[in-house]
Amino acid sequence: SDEDEFAAAATRLSGDLAPRAAALGRRYHAARVKSPALAGVMSALVPGSGQLYSGSLQAAAVTFVLNSLFIGATVELARDKLYVTAAAAGTAASFFYVGGIINAADLARRRNRIAQQPYADDLEELLVPEVGGTLSP
To answer: Averaged over 18-24, what is the pLDDT?
Structure first.
Protein backbone atom coordinates (compact mmCIF):
# COMPACT_ATOMS: atom_id res chain seq x y z
CA SER A 1 0.00 0.00 0.00
CA ASP A 2 1.06 3.63 -0.30
CA GLU A 3 1.28 3.75 3.49
CA ASP A 4 4.02 1.10 3.54
CA GLU A 5 5.87 2.76 0.67
CA PHE A 6 5.77 6.12 2.41
CA ALA A 7 6.99 4.64 5.71
CA ALA A 8 9.91 2.98 3.89
CA ALA A 9 10.79 6.21 2.08
CA ALA A 10 10.53 8.23 5.30
CA THR A 11 13.15 6.05 7.00
CA ARG A 12 15.65 7.07 4.30
CA LEU A 13 15.35 10.78 5.14
CA SER A 14 18.24 12.44 6.92
CA GLY A 15 18.39 13.79 10.44
CA ASP A 16 15.25 14.49 12.40
CA LEU A 17 13.14 14.57 9.23
CA ALA A 18 12.67 10.78 9.27
CA PRO A 19 10.69 10.44 12.53
CA ARG A 20 8.71 13.64 11.91
CA ALA A 21 7.78 12.60 8.36
CA ALA A 22 6.88 9.08 9.51
CA ALA A 23 4.62 10.45 12.26
CA LEU A 24 2.89 12.85 9.87
CA GLY A 25 2.50 10.01 7.37
CA ARG A 26 0.80 7.83 9.98
CA ARG A 27 -1.57 10.69 10.91
CA TYR A 28 -2.28 11.33 7.23
CA HIS A 29 -3.25 7.71 6.60
CA ALA A 30 -5.21 7.44 9.86
CA ALA A 31 -7.33 10.43 8.78
CA ARG A 32 -9.00 8.22 6.17
CA VAL A 33 -11.97 7.10 8.22
CA LYS A 34 -14.74 6.66 5.66
CA SER A 35 -14.72 3.82 3.16
CA PRO A 36 -15.96 4.88 -0.29
CA ALA A 37 -16.80 1.25 -1.11
CA LEU A 38 -18.89 0.87 2.04
CA ALA A 39 -20.66 4.17 1.33
CA GLY A 40 -21.54 2.95 -2.17
CA VAL A 41 -22.80 -0.43 -0.95
CA MET A 42 -24.86 1.19 1.78
CA SER A 43 -26.45 3.55 -0.73
CA ALA A 44 -27.17 0.61 -3.03
CA LEU A 45 -29.00 -1.21 -0.23
CA VAL A 46 -30.90 1.81 1.12
CA PRO A 47 -30.73 4.94 -1.03
CA GLY A 48 -29.34 7.81 1.04
CA SER A 49 -27.68 5.68 3.72
CA GLY A 50 -24.25 5.99 2.08
CA GLN A 51 -24.58 9.76 2.05
CA LEU A 52 -25.56 9.68 5.71
CA TYR A 53 -22.53 7.48 6.51
CA SER A 54 -20.34 9.96 4.62
CA GLY A 55 -21.62 12.80 6.79
CA SER A 56 -24.13 14.58 4.56
CA LEU A 57 -27.62 14.57 6.02
CA GLN A 58 -28.92 16.88 3.30
CA ALA A 59 -27.64 14.67 0.44
CA ALA A 60 -29.04 11.61 2.23
CA ALA A 61 -32.49 13.17 2.48
CA VAL A 62 -32.51 14.31 -1.15
CA THR A 63 -31.33 10.92 -2.39
CA PHE A 64 -33.87 9.02 -0.32
CA VAL A 65 -36.80 11.27 -1.26
CA LEU A 66 -36.00 11.36 -5.00
CA ASN A 67 -35.55 7.60 -5.21
CA SER A 68 -38.75 7.03 -3.24
CA LEU A 69 -40.73 9.38 -5.48
CA PHE A 70 -39.45 7.87 -8.71
CA ILE A 71 -39.97 4.29 -7.56
CA GLY A 72 -43.44 5.13 -6.25
CA ALA A 73 -44.35 6.87 -9.50
CA THR A 74 -43.11 3.89 -11.51
CA VAL A 75 -45.23 1.47 -9.46
CA GLU A 76 -48.35 3.65 -9.64
CA LEU A 77 -48.01 4.20 -13.39
CA ALA A 78 -47.59 0.46 -13.95
CA ARG A 79 -50.69 -0.25 -11.81
CA ASP A 80 -52.65 2.18 -13.97
CA LYS A 81 -51.37 0.29 -17.05
CA LEU A 82 -49.49 3.32 -18.35
CA TYR A 83 -46.53 1.16 -19.28
CA VAL A 84 -44.63 3.57 -21.52
CA THR A 85 -44.78 6.31 -18.88
CA ALA A 86 -43.90 3.77 -16.19
CA ALA A 87 -40.87 2.70 -18.22
CA ALA A 88 -39.77 6.32 -18.52
CA ALA A 89 -40.19 6.88 -14.79
CA GLY A 90 -38.35 3.63 -14.08
CA THR A 91 -35.50 4.69 -16.34
CA ALA A 92 -35.25 8.03 -14.53
CA ALA A 93 -35.39 6.17 -11.20
CA SER A 94 -32.49 3.94 -12.22
CA PHE A 95 -30.37 6.98 -13.16
CA PHE A 96 -31.03 8.59 -9.77
CA TYR A 97 -30.35 5.26 -8.02
CA VAL A 98 -26.97 4.72 -9.71
CA GLY A 99 -26.13 8.40 -9.30
CA GLY A 100 -26.81 8.11 -5.58
CA ILE A 101 -24.39 5.20 -5.28
CA ILE A 102 -21.67 7.13 -7.11
CA ASN A 103 -22.40 10.25 -5.05
CA ALA A 104 -22.10 8.36 -1.74
CA ALA A 105 -18.67 6.99 -2.68
CA ASP A 106 -17.54 10.41 -3.87
CA LEU A 107 -18.71 12.07 -0.65
CA ALA A 108 -16.66 9.57 1.39
CA ARG A 109 -13.58 10.25 -0.78
CA ARG A 110 -14.00 14.00 -0.40
CA ARG A 111 -14.49 13.74 3.36
CA ASN A 112 -11.27 11.71 3.63
CA ARG A 113 -9.38 14.21 1.47
CA ILE A 114 -10.56 17.11 3.66
CA ALA A 115 -9.55 15.21 6.82
CA GLN A 116 -6.11 14.46 5.35
CA GLN A 117 -5.37 17.93 3.99
CA PRO A 118 -3.80 19.42 7.16
CA TYR A 119 -1.34 16.50 7.34
CA ALA A 120 -0.58 16.77 3.63
CA ASP A 121 0.15 20.48 4.10
CA ASP A 122 2.43 19.75 7.08
CA LEU A 123 4.25 17.04 5.12
CA GLU A 124 4.69 19.37 2.19
CA GLU A 125 6.07 22.10 4.43
CA LEU A 126 8.43 19.61 6.08
CA LEU A 127 9.70 17.93 2.92
CA VAL A 128 9.51 20.78 0.37
CA PRO A 129 9.69 24.01 2.37
CA GLU A 130 10.86 26.10 -0.60
CA VAL A 131 7.54 25.52 -2.41
CA GLY A 132 5.59 27.17 0.40
CA GLY A 133 2.32 25.29 0.11
CA THR A 134 1.78 25.74 -3.62
CA LEU A 135 1.30 22.02 -4.31
CA SER A 136 -2.12 21.79 -2.64
CA PRO A 137 -5.08 21.23 -4.99
So the answer is: 82
11, 18 Cβ separation under 8 angstroms: yes
Q: In the chain, how many H helices and how many E strands?
A: 6, 0
CA 30/CA 9 separation, integer angstroms: 18
Burial of 4 per CB tally in 10 Å (0-12, 13-18, 19+): exposed
Whole-prediction pTM: 0.76
Nearest to 125 by CA among 24, 49, 51: 24
**35 DSSP 8-state letter:** -
Cβ count near 30 (within 10 Å): 12
16 touches 42 (CB < 8 A): no
Per DSSP, 54 falls in state T
Angle between helices 83-127 and 36-45 (to 10 degrees): 160
> What does the pLDDT look like over 67-120, one tens digit per residue?
999 999 999 999 999 999 999 999 999 999 999 999 999 999 999 988 888 888
Radius of gyration (C-alpha) of the chain in whole angstroms: 22
CA atoms within 13 A on the CB side of 105: 11
